[in-house]
Amino acid sequence: MNPPINYLAVVVAALANYVIGAIWYAALFRKAWAKLMGMAEMKVTVLSVVLALVGAFFMSWVLDHAIIFAGTFMKIAGVGGGLEAGFFNWLGFIAPVTLGIVIYEKKSWALWLLNNGYWLVSLLVMGIILSVWT
To answer: How many CA atoms lie within 13 A of 98 on its CB side?
Structure first.
């Protein structure tokens, strides 16, 4: 049996992910991120925007499955359920995987914190959208 996915909520959450990224990396932390990456400036292309949106859609879709599962089997719902799902998906999937930038790519912990701050905020907002709308 397929879970009842609300695709409008998935798209809105994916767009929220993209907007948060644009604010985070273009408005709030552009210079800090570029410095930590060793770049003069971030270059945004049409391809990078399209790929980011596609990735955000799939992340939103998978997060919605996790929220549906949590709601069905653990009775987690509403804003609290969305925050919990977003946090634990960040803690279990994003935070450990991105440790590779520090461990293997020898980037700074400051870059890890900056990037993971974005992912945590984004997943919390996406979780809220999906949880209250699904």
So the answer is: 19
Average pLDDT over residues 55-83: 89
Neighbour-count burial of 96, counting CB atoms closer than 10 A to its CB (0-12 exposed, 13-18 middle, 19+ buried): exposed
The SS3 call for residue 74 is: coil
Structure tokens at 83: 């925050």
What pLDDT was estimated at residue 41?
A: 78
The model's pTM? 0.91
CB of 24 closer than 8 Å to CB of 121: yes
In this structure, is the dihedral angle defined by the CA atoms of residues 99, 105, 109 and 114, taken in order, positive or negative? negative
State how far the alpha carbon of 87 is from the alpha carbons of 36, 83, 134, in Å.
25, 6, 18
Q: According to the model, what pLDDT value does residue 1 have?
A: 62
CA distances from 69 to 63, 79, 86 (A): 10, 16, 13
